[in-house]
Amino acid sequence: MAEVDIEGGTNMNLDAEKTESKDQAAPSRTAGEAGWHVSRYNISAPIPDTNLTAIANLFKGNCAKYTPIELYLLSVLEELDEHHPIIERFAKRGIIANFDERAALECMGRGACGRAPMVGLTICPTIGCNFDCPYCFQDHGRGHMTKEVQDDVIALTERMLSTSSAKKLHVTWFGGEPLLVPNIIESLSERLIALAEEHGASYQASIITNGYLLTQDIADMLHHYKVESAQITVDGLDPTHNATRYLRGGGPTFDRIIANLRDLSLPFRVNIRHNVHEDNRDEVEKLEAFINQLASESGNKLHYYPAPVSDSSTAEERGRQVGLLCSNEESDVSIRQESKRFSQGRGHYCGAHTLWAIGIDDAGNLHKCWEAVDKPDLSFGTAHDWDPADPINSASNADNLTKFLNTACPVPDEECRECVWLPTCVGGCPYRRLFEARKCIPFKDNPEGYVLALQERIGENEEGQNEGDA
Asked: Whole-model pTM above 0.90?
């Protein structure tokens, strides 16, 4: 035992005993006095045929069941002793908090939008397409990316990696239909991968394609150039799909797409997007079962997800808008998809909110949203001229840059900032907020349905983690 001054040690022990006695005698604070309050981001629903209630906390990404006794304790939270054992349990699930959640959400949002862990490029080697889908937001035209524009893309990527010091480069191949020009994907990929290596950055890629032109050689080429996932749209079973996803000039596409998914050995994950509208909404479960069976038979990694079709001004101009879902139908489809993402906690900010994610069209014009890549008037600059080290002065139209960046952190809309759904939607799609009517999430008016769908899909979720991910 180390030597100590006996007198000093004695006094120290007496002081400690006095302090302990004083602490024990001090009256305990209530939870309210200690700063605890019910979260502003809770939504709840009674679970049918039980006496339990499901509460989802949108800030933390947690959904759990609560007994009547627990609900009572929650209702008198601020009167409870701050050391009541239920406090820790409620706090762990996020349904109570001792901080300003909205301020925290906005702070985290500023961090997410401001930092540069990744440079994200959406590259359109062509805006042309071999399909003529009536709901498409693009007005297809022009040719393909020239060698000069490709050189500009590489130079821009060099500037973005140098300025950001990002350690990851992610490329999404988009269009139009990118597989119309696989040679451009191949040549650009080789140069982009080499550039990432020079900067000590990892490289990943994905592709959005209609799947019609996919061959084994192309699939192998994409895999070689680090494409890890593809999105292919299938809009229903044979006749339903062919009614909306037909070739330019006419002609069915379903059989060939399905044959590609079944017969090719696809070395990457394929997300099968089902654009759900009035004419195919009854096929959601049938198509999901069909895709699951196709995945089982082929051995390919096929994953189904439904997405409600949004209004399209381009389709209106063509006079061929498909029947949109009513609000309740859109809500049902969206709840189904959103419940899979819920347990990640808090919404995901769009790439349009950050300086380090841009879209590049076939002419080298830069955009903050891929829904604008066929609209030159919404471009903020060119791959040849824009410099992220001087983003405003090097932009040809700085307003087209800043108005996207300023749609978040905080959301410039007091109604949105007060909304319980803010952690989930974080203000919604920047493009729609800027150029269309503000579009709230479809399930906003059906909170009970949303909570019950979460409870059914992910069950008890103590840690804000999906049970399947635990």
From this structure: no
